[in-house]
């Protein structure tokens, strides 16, 4: 199902494929839902096993309403309920998703039960400007979604994570982690960002992520996410340390690394936040040795325990809305965990096992090829382990002689 857009209105239509998605045929009785509105879009359909119906969520964009529709056959749709004026409004709601996923114990990772999540994107009007995604954990009975609390929660503390879509499966996700991808950009500047000579297009998607809701300390029903099976693209280990307490690790990729992509993991145990000074920190610098451009980030461990990211020292793009820095405050116990993935122009970080995540795009003149991780002023008894890998190209098997990737080529018939 998709939104058919014309100057007069937006209406919901169906197309079907008989060749695994290579060609599509429009349904003869389109549109299947039309209300004579110019801001009525973004259908997302799931099958609800308990009620035996198909369920669609749909945005009445400028009315700040998500409509729930039901159908026995995907062609005849009945309005069932509305979810309105909740959380951050911005100037319009977009791209809703309704998905069931695990509800886990944040400390043990064990699944307690399942919970429904209503995900709504807003644009413009994000706290950092432009577009952003927010979510509500709740119950769904086949027709009505009821949130478990009144909190407005942002899905990603970076500036470039929007319009998240969850992959649909024939059965409910239930106790399996739900999988999603987001558009890694922001409507404030997406039409102006550059593109590299190998790509030939603007914008990209985030990493695919596993998602679940957990009972986080002082956070309540937090949507956690973590990269989906990153192991398949891990390349050579460029550097590691099993005890980097108050020391520095430098890892450099050699000339054979043409991806400019890295994964960095850091784990700290034995923290005692009552003993730490204001200088206790872990800092990461990702550098292009050719141009001196850097991405910098770090975690402070005392006080508000703030993690920050700064893309301001990359020089291939300048725009007043392309703000340099983002940050988030954490509630720390005696351990801390980070996974960071740096791709050609997308920078993602996952903290505390996925409790917080951020997506930032960047545009550098030179390829990133150095990683420096430094740790300072941690308490005695703390243990710091760090690893840095280069990432393999996911395009390699599809590249032509000049390095171009032209997408799927198929012969039908």
TrEMBL record:
<feature type="domain" description="Glycosyl hydrolase family 32 N-terminal">
    <location>
        <begin position="2"/>
        <end position="215"/>
    </location>
</feature>
<dbReference type="GO" id="GO:0000324">
    <property type="term" value="C:fungal-type vacuole"/>
</dbReference>
<dbReference type="GO" id="GO:0004575">
    <property type="term" value="F:sucrose alpha-glucosidase activity"/>
</dbReference>
<dbReference type="InterPro" id="IPR023296">
    <property type="entry name" value="Glyco_hydro_beta-prop_sf"/>
</dbReference>
<feature type="domain" description="Glycosyl hydrolase family 32 C-terminal">
    <location>
        <begin position="253"/>
        <end position="390"/>
    </location>
</feature>
<protein>
    <submittedName>
        <fullName>Extracellular exo-inulinase</fullName>
    </submittedName>
</protein>
<keyword id="KW-0378">Hydrolase</keyword>
<keyword id="KW-0326">Glycosidase</keyword>
<dbReference type="InterPro" id="IPR013320">
    <property type="entry name" value="ConA-like_dom_sf"/>
</dbReference>
<dbReference type="Pfam" id="PF08244">
    <property type="entry name" value="Glyco_hydro_32C"/>
</dbReference>
<dbReference type="Pfam" id="PF00251">
    <property type="entry name" value="Glyco_hydro_32N"/>
</dbReference>
<comment type="similarity">
    <text>Belongs to the glycosyl hydrolase 32 family.</text>
</comment>
<dbReference type="GO" id="GO:0005987">
    <property type="term" value="P:sucrose catabolic process"/>
</dbReference>
<dbReference type="InterPro" id="IPR013189">
    <property type="entry name" value="Glyco_hydro_32_C"/>
</dbReference>
<dbReference type="InterPro" id="IPR001362">
    <property type="entry name" value="Glyco_hydro_32"/>
</dbReference>
<dbReference type="InterPro" id="IPR013148">
    <property type="entry name" value="Glyco_hydro_32_N"/>
</dbReference>
């Amino acid at each position: 199902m998709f939104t058919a857009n014309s100057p007069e209105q937006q209406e919901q239509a169906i197309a079907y494929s008989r060749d695994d998605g290579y060609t599509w045929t429009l349904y003869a009785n389109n549109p299947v839902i039309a209300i004579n509105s110019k801001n009525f879009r973004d259908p997302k359909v799931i099958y609800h096993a308990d009620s035996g119906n198909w369920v669609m969520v749909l945005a009445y964009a400028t009315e700040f309403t998500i409509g729930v529709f039901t159908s026995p056959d995907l062609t005849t749709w009945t309005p069932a309920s509305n979810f309105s004026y909740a959380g951050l409004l911005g100037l319009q709601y977009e791209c809703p998703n309704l998905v069931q996923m695990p509800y886990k114990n944040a400390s043990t990772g064990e699944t307690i039960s399942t919970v429904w999540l209503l995900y709504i994107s807003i644009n413009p009007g994000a706290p950092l400007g432009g577009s952003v995604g927010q979510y509500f954990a709740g119950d769904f009975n086949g027709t009505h979604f009821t949130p478990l609390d009144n909190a407005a929660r942002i899905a990603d503390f970076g500036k470039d994570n929007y319009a998240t879509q969850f992959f649909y499966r024939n059965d409910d996700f239930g106790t399996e982690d739900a999988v999603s991808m987001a558009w890694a950009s922001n409507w404030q500047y997406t039409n102006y960002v550059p593109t590299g000579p190998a790509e030939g297009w603007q914008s990209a998607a985030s990493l695919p992520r596993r998602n679940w809701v957990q009972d986080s300390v002082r956070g309540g029903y937090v949507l956690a996410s973590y990269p989906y099976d990153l192991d398949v693209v891990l390349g050579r280990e460029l550097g590691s340390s099993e005890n980097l307490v108050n020391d520095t690790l430098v890892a450099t990729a050699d000339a054979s690394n043409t991806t400019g992509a890295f994964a960095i993991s850091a784990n700290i145990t034995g923290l005692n936040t009552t003993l730490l000074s204001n200088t206790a920190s872990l800092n990461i610098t990702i550098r292009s040795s050719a141009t001196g451009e850097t991405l910098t980030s770090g975690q402070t461990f005392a006080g508000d325990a703030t993690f920050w990211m700064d893309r301001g020292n990359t020089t291939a793009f300048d725009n007043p809305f392309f703000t340099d820095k983002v940050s988030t405050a954490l509630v720390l116990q005696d351990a801390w965990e980070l996974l960071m993935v740096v791709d050609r122009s997308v920078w993602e970080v996952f903290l505390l096992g996925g409790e917080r995540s951020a997506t930032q795009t960047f545009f550098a003149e030179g390829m990133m090829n150095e990683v420096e991780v430094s740790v300072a002023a941690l308490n005695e008894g703390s243990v710091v382990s760090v690893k840095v890998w280069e990432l393999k190209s996911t395009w390699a098997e599809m590249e032509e002689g000049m390095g171009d990737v032209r997408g799927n080529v198929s012969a039908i018939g």
